[in-house]
Amino acid sequence: MSVDSLEWLTIAMREFAKEREWDQFHSPKNLSMALAGETGELLDCFRWLTEEASYQLDAQQAQAVKEELADVLLFTVCLADKLDINLFEAAQEKMLKNESHYPADRVKGCAKKYTEY
Ligand SMILES: [Mg+2]
Q1: Separation of 66 CA from ligand 1 center, angstroms?
Q2: Measured on CA atoms in the order 8, 14, 15, 20, is the torsion positive or negative?
Q3: How far is Cα 95 from Cα 92, in angstroms, rounded to an integer?
Q4: Cα–Cα distances in Å, from 112 out to 16, 50, 65, 99, 105?
Q5: Ligand 1 centroid vs 10 CA: distance in angstroms?
Q6: Quick check: 72 and 42 in contact, CB under 8 A?
Q7: How far is the CA of 110 from the centre of ligand 1 (A)?
Q8: How close is the Cα of 67 to the center of ligand 1, in Å?
Q9: Which domains occur in the chain, in start order?
Q10: Residue 26 dihedral angles phi and psi, to the nearest 5°
Q11: C-alpha 95 – ligand 1 centre gap (Å)
Q12: Which of 36, 45, 53, 75 is the Cys-Cys partner for 49 at CB 3.0 to 4.6 Å?
């Protein structure tokens, strides 16, 4: 198993929680709330930045974004594990759905939601 796989991350997170007896707190409800919280922390990294500044993060800002993205991934992996969801399969299915909702020839250069065009 590759250490850069979601499977490895899933097992590592199970062990991390087990060693701390935190699994008792990891209901799907709590994990989804934790995921939303981490997403909020990611958003906070960009709060009040201009569009241009959001591309030009300094080292401290870039590190903060990196850590919050990692938190989002880790809680996503935990929640998917708890609900027995294969994230690669789910993402592939969602990409197919997105391709159906957003045919390139119809939406090129348009940022509207598929229900709006
Ligand atoms: Mg965080």
Answers
A1: 10
A2: positive
A3: 5
A4: 41, 22, 27, 14, 14
A5: 18
A6: yes
A7: 32
A8: 7
A9: 6-85 (1.10.287.1080), 87-117 (no CATH)
A10: -95, 55
A11: 27
A12: 53
Residue 2 has pLDDT above 90, yes or no: no
Residue 114 confidence (pLDDT) above 80? no
**What separation in Å is there between the alpha carbon of 82 and the centre of ligand 1?**
20
| Direct distance between the N- and C-terminal alpha carbons of the chain, in angstroms, rounded to an integer | 44
Task: Compute the distance from residue 72 Cα to the ligand 1 centre, in Å.
Answer: 8
From ligand 1's centre to the CA of 85, what distance in Å?
Answer: 23
55 band by pLDDT with thresholds 50, 70 and 90: very high
- C-alpha 57 to ligand 1 mean position (Å): 18
* pLDDT bracket for residue 57 (50, 70, 90): very high
Instruction: Name the pTM for this structure.
Output: 0.91
